[in-house]
Specification:
The protein has a seven-stranded mixed beta sheet with strand order 5-7-8-9-10-11-12, with helices on one face. The protein has a six-stranded mixed beta sheet with strand order 6-4-3-2-1-13. The relative contact order is 0.13. By secondary structure, the protein is α/β, with parallel strands linked by helices. Helices cover about 45% and strands about 15% of the residues. The protein folds into two domains: about 240 residues, no CATH class; about 250 residues, Nitrilase/N-carbamoyl-D-aminoacid amidohydrolase (4-Layer Sandwich).
Length: about 500
Amino acid sequence: MIALLSGAIGPLAFSPNHMWLIGFVSVMGFYVALKFASPRQGAITGWFFGLGFFGVGASWVFVSINVYGNAGELLAGFLTFLFVAGLALLYSLQSWLNQRFFHASFYMFGFAALWVLGEWFRSWFLTGFPWLYMGYPHIQSSFSGLAPIFGVLSISLVVALSGAGFGEMFLIWQRHDERKAYTVARSYIPTGLFFIWIAAGLSGKLTWVEPVENGIIDVGLVQANIDQGQKFDSAFIAQNLDRYEELSDSLWDSDVIVWPETAIPYVAGRSNRVLDYFAEKARSTNTTLVTGIFGETQAGLHNSITSLGNGEGIYHKQKLVPFGEYVPMRALFSTLLEVFDLPMSSLEPGPNTQPMLSAGPYTLASFICYEVVYPDFVRRGAKESDFMVTISNDTWFGASWGPLQHLEMAAMRALENGRYLVRATNNGVSAIINEKGIIIAQTGQFTAEVLRGEVQVFSGRTPFSYWGSWPILLLCAGMLVFVSRVPASVPAFLEHLRNR
């Protein structure tokens, strides 16, 4: 019960709740529930924690399946449970490893290291689900300075160590009847955490990138709020394009206009008349129009983004959403496809190496929807860019926490890479985010509106843009080796030193 509750409260740390202190409490509760369990009990405890964590934090999956997948509430609820229960198995495995291999005296270090490696594992296992990393709620906390150096996983490590430290102090307090405060202080855990927090806080004082003189770009974002039921209906396509054009009327004097994912639901190369019209309109005002579209190569159809007018290039999405944009083991799930009738379920991933889009003299790294939640994937694309653009259609999430969690993760990418990021979505939240991960302008949700602002181009690169998550992953691997190999005599020796 403690593990389930600890997991369920964890998502309250994330957007839109922003109660980041709850993250420490969530990890602490999980640690206390797990500490003295057997490996088998640990696996069960971890599964219940994951069930609560993803059951609350990823509940938006139900909206996608029920409202937009045309599944009834019972079926949608059942499929959501299967999804959440499957993800919870990752915490079950993590917990079993904790209980199987790590010495009790250094358990908190193994716990924290496995926590971070577990988050990293989720970023690529079965195409990845890098959602709800415990570092994200600290996008604007005193720990945020770690992100441009080591990435979001480094903040997760601090949170995991802190939660484990609090849990260990709680257990020490429980085990002693007298001089509780003295015994906790003598454990060195408060001192250790204090120095970790100070180091994390001081990291925010460092500057890694510099603004480019005269590197100001005037951008306009268009959020058309197109109904999902009409978006791919041929009877409404002309009407929807008219809405985009009307909303963009006041933006044609901007340097860059950005429309969201699949704003033009045609295939590039097959719809030259439409593309030529908007390309010429942008060219006549010396504007770059960046818009979502479908692309086509020999591999098949792609979810793409293109640059028209005073820009050029097309990028094909590489990180596709399972069952949303492609279907694993398609023959096995053919019946499921007939039930859901998903309009974008037959897309192909783009090649690993693609040139960046251009907007006048500037280069922009482009990411489509789900791609922006992959830290190292974004790093590889953004490291040589002047600024970043991400387009999305978060309509699939409805009025859930999903779109706001998505925005929080996009802001972390801006902070990690020291670059402005502009985000255009169909129905919110569209935003302009600066190099510190601060949202400087944003739209509402479920509204048709435009957002205009400035993007500052920066020179230089953050340490994270050079080495990615590898230093933290190697540190965590080293911690695991130390904890699993440390002789039993070492804890006894340290206890002897404390008693002198």
